[in-house]
Amino acid sequence: MTKAGGEALLDRSVALRVNGLTAPRYRLCHRRLDEAHSNLVAAWGDIGGTADWPDDGQWQQLAAGNRLEDLEPERVVEAVDGSLDQAFELPMPSVSLIELSPI
């Protein structure tokens, strides 16, 4: 039995701590690759992909959507004593990208 399509028992609660921050405030962007975000397999189905390989037009459509999607709206967060704590859920399978930009 494969878990490639997901398994709730493998979902994780993530506690992320970033140390050594020098600015007091940051713009936080949380991007995600999962079943509902940035999913190339779903995009292939959405454009009617049924062949083993995309044709030129399908490649162009796939390339147009080739980006990581935001999981949540961008927001401003505050560092405390040079550290930032964030918590979020991470379903299986998925990958999160957290970007911090000083403001």
User: How many DSSP helices?
Assistant: 2
User: What Rg is obtained from the alpha carbons, in whole angstroms?
Assistant: 18 Å
**Biggest β-sheet description:** 4 strands, antiparallel
Give the termini distance in whole angstroms.
48 Å
SS class: alpha+beta
> Could you tell me the number of beta strands?
6
Helix fraction by DSSP (H/I, runs of at least 4): 10-25%
- In what range is the share of β-strand residues? 35-45%
Low-confidence segments, given as residue ranges, are none
Helix-strand sequence: EEHHEEEE
User: Could you report the average pLDDT, rounded to the nearest whole number?
Assistant: 92
Folded structure, characterized:
By secondary structure, the protein is α+β, with helices and mostly antiparallel strands. The chain has a domain of 66 residues. The chain contains two helices and six strands. The strands form two sheets. Strands 2, 3, 4 and 6 form a four-stranded antiparallel β-sheet that branches. Strands 1-5 form a two-stranded antiparallel ribbon. It is flat.
